[in-house]
Amino acid sequence: MVNELQALLNSHGAAPPLAVDGVFGTMTYAAVVRFQATRSLSVDGVVGPRTWAALHGESMPAAQAPAASAGTLIGADGGAGTSAAEFISGPEAPGTVTHTSSVVIPEDCLKQRQECERCCEDLHPWWRPWEWRERDLCKYDCCGPAFRRCMVDGTFPCLCKA
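Below the sequence we write its predicted structure tokens.
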């Protein structure tokens, strides 16, 4: 299914083109999020019934959308815990990095995430075992959502660097 997804995303102009390798990684996730955003779908990185329909050039009214189980969704594990609110632009937080172009470049978002995670590591060093939990929470609660937002609108609200 992931091979088919990657081929369909490529046919819809995924940039950069995806390697059709069957791996739902960050590049595939980013392409799904961009595709969903351009088609006015729920931007969650999960390839559910509406996203599949749009990829196949079909429309699916909300009343006819079938309920999907987690097993039929691609990307459900990668987007777990992601709410639509995390993808809505709002007032910029301190430390927000904004891209100057209107095109989201996944590599830039990945670099920002790596910098954010390094910041968490500096704030909560490994040699202080009592800070390991805070270090993990910093990466999970701050860097993860900021990365997902960056993949949608190019902003990276990194509270760690504020």
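The two ends are 41 Å apart (CA to CA).
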